[in-house]
Amino acid sequence: MIPTYPYYSQMTQCKQVPITFPPQHQNRQPGLEYLMNPVPISDNPEYRGSGKLAGKVAIITGGDSGIGRAVSIAFAKEGADVAIVYLYEREDAMATAEMVAAYGRQCLPIEGDLRRPAFSAEVVHRTLTHFGKIDTLVLNQGVQFPQTSILDISDEQLENTYRTNIFPHFYMTKAALPHLCPGSTIISTASVTAYAGAPLLVDYSSTKGAIVSFTRSLSLQLVDKGIRVNAVAPGPIWTPLIVSSYSAEYVKTFGLETPMKRAGQPFELAPTYVYLASDDSSFVTGQVLHVNGGIMTET
């Protein structure tokens, strides 16, 4: 259910009222959703599923919280079972599994490090063992470490950002592809920063640019196999990544730069992933859909 805190009541007003968050910071990435104030809104009770993904199985990386949790819930509402992959956020992952189960679908939580190529093969194997098939692959894992200067981006940070944000796209796709059939879909989470840039996120935004190119090129490679490949480019979204990467002072104004003068909530993105995973988007591949509160981008 949607929490009844004032942030949501402000969001539902017709006029665009600036919405701010209490200052907060977590010292470890990817961050923990249950510690956030307010907790992100993952489920919209007004969203009614209509069987768009009935009988489907999806793997969702980063599915424990934030955008991944919202997508897991929306997929469950549409009739899909999900395997969610997470690094260490077990309490968040178990909460997501309970939310999926509440809508009558199964959720398989899988803990591990997607920076290891062998783990992707394990994820696919465990999903196939549990569910028997894979229909959709949602590649949603990510980290970011803001730096005011490129000179402050260490070799370790650069490698970690790339190994987390883009390398698993290759590892997971290579592991899952032999088991995907015509009609299957691959959906990545890109970012508005791939198009608008971000002065504090040079390495992060460049990985998101790589995801855009990955999406376009892979879509061309797989179109003859009947597999569609697309991406979603969120703007500022209230997720654990924000409070674990930015200072408490920065968090107070997060999202105010959008024309809507607020950050988005994860549930506002989820229907875009449903669209790209379902037959509603049967003539869509190689595309990036922008959900960013009105920020204009060059596509």
Automatic annotation (TrEMBL):
Record keywords, A-Z: Oxidoreductase
GO molecular function, a single term: oxidoreductase activity, acting on CH-OH group of donors
Oxidoreductase listed as a keyword: yes
Pfam families hit by this protein: adh_short_C2
Gene3D superfamilies documented for this protein: NAD(P)-binding Rossmann-like Domain (3.40.50.720)
Single GO BP term: bile acid metabolic process
PANTHER family the UniProt entry points to: NADPH-DEPENDENT ALDEHYDE REDUCTASE 1, CHLOROPLASTIC (PTHR48107:SF16), NADPH-DEPENDENT ALDEHYDE REDUCTASE-LIKE PROTEIN, CHLOROPLASTIC-RELATED (PTHR48107)
Protein family: Belongs to the short-chain dehydrogenases/reductases (SDR) family.
Protein name, entry field: SDR family oxidoreductase
